[in-house]
Amino acid sequence: MKISCGPTFLWLSILLSTVIFGSARPEGIIETQTEESLISQTKSLESTIKKSEITTTIKALEDEEAANQKSEEVKLKADTKELPEWTIMLYIQAKNNLSFYAARNLNEIASIGSNEKVNIVVQWEQPNQKGVSRYHIKKNNIARVFHDEKPLKNDQGTKIVEFAKWTKENYSAKNFSLILWNHGVGILDPIWGNTVRYPLYVPGMRGCARAEICGLTALYAEQQEIPAIRGILFDEENRVYMTNKELDETLSIVTKDVLKKPIDVLGMDACFMGMLEVNYLVRPYAKYCVGSEELVIAYGLNYVELMKKLTKETLTPKELAQAIVTTYKEFYEDKTEFYTLSAIDLSKIDAVKESVDGVVTEVKNLCETDESRIKNAMQNARVNSLEFSMPLYIDLCSFYKNFLQQLSIDPTKFTPPPESKVPRARQRHLRSRDIEAKGIEDDEKFRILSQKISVSLSAVDSAVIANTGSKTFRDAKGLSVYFPKYSIDRSYLRTEFAQKSQWPWFIAKNVE
């Protein structure tokens, strides 16, 4: 069918021919086209444009994807290159009589501050504080970088887990150390009340090396009425603390769900945490653990020198654990005769536990034929072992060495040590019980027991990678153990070590 060439259609034809052929017809010459021809040309033009657009779009997408991939690779390399060696997570529970020392420790840390090698982050629980505050410690700047008025649950475990999550998201590193700063009592779970369930052997404040350190500050001696001692995570405002079970559950979540790996160094800036039972509890969750068999003086770890090492040197987890101990010694050795600290390789703790079981098994065998003799040797060794301010705890190696002596002692030559050299708690024990040393012949059956004790001493020595103690505690070799004289605390029997080892039988035999 023909169509008439109206003005509009003519101009459309000219425009179309210009696009298709590159130029318009000479003026005055207008070539009419059929409808089929125009439709065909239009479709051809549309197809060409669409193909061009699709090709351009695909190329653009490919270029964008390549650019994004390259950007991600560059970012990944940058992130890996810039990842600090260490992030130190310091959890300070200072809602108690140690609040003054918390501020002091943080000021000491801020004198060094974080750098490209180390992030130092803190969750600081302060007296009368509402909500949660977290800090990134920079050079001469304790910078609060997080605050939430909404309080978390009052249990310490929830707070530590949330602190670890926040740290991993914002201050990740190749290695992580978690330091727990506060009060506690080792492996036992105390009961809040008006009376002290486990009284510590702590003399008056003034002149006591356990609390007052000559030459550091007069403020401490002038303003404090009672000794400030350390333990683990006691919140005196809310009357809550972390039990051993809660510590186990908390560290399990932190390592398995948050960090996705064991903590490289777990630090206990707290009293009595250098125990075999405590290290056995935390062994799945950390590579190394640092703690004290005794009280930790209120000034705590030597944070200044420790942070200097971290910011200047590239330390492995083992080296950091050892550095905590060596810097602690450097700070206290010329100031007091009352300190201990040790670093434990937690991969060796199972071997220590097995060696202890080996000793107990042999004692059980001997008790079948010579119970009274072996029991006397155990009791005499216990009396002469190194006790700590919590008299329920003794140094394991000290006990072993005394036990070895008892296995070959001449009963006619045994005399109790003079009372002046014995802690008061032990003096009372010596006065109340007339312990008579009975020698044990060096025959074959006791020789096997001696060998088992020597094996266990070697296991402890292998597990302790750093140890320090003042002259008062020169016999402290790095691991204490629960060894009561009169009765066994029920909370102890709930611990993992008590449930999986033969040690409860051994101490029960001693208190019969």
> CATH architecture of the largest domain, please?
3-Layer(aba) Sandwich
Largest sheet: 9 strands, mixed
How do the helices and strands follow one another from N- to C-terminus?
Answer: HHEHEEEHEHEEHEHEHHEHEHHHEEHHH
Helix content: 40-55%
Quickly count the helices. Answer: 16
Low-confidence stretches: 1-35, 73-80, 192-232, 409-422, 424-442
Question: How is this structure best described in words?
Answer:
With 512 residues, the chain is an alpha/beta fold. It has three domains: 7-78; 84-192 and 228-348, Rossmann fold (3-Layer(aba) Sandwich); 353-511, no CATH class. It has helices spanning 7-21, 35-82, 99-110, 156-170, 218-223, 244-259, 276-282, 303-312, 317-332, 349-383, 396-406, 424-432, 444-463, 490-493, 496-500, 503-511, and strands spanning 86-93, 118-125, 132-138, 141-148, 175-181, 234-235, 240-241, 263-269, 286-291, 340-345, 393-395, 464-469, 480-482. The chain has a nine-stranded mixed sheet, with helices on both faces. β1, α3 (99-110) and β2 (118-125) form a beta-alpha-beta unit. α11 (396-406) runs antiparallel to α13. The longest helix is centred in the first third of the chain and has 48 residues, at 35-82. The protein is elongated. Residues 1-35, 73-80, 192-232, 409-422 and 424-442 have low confidence and may be disordered.
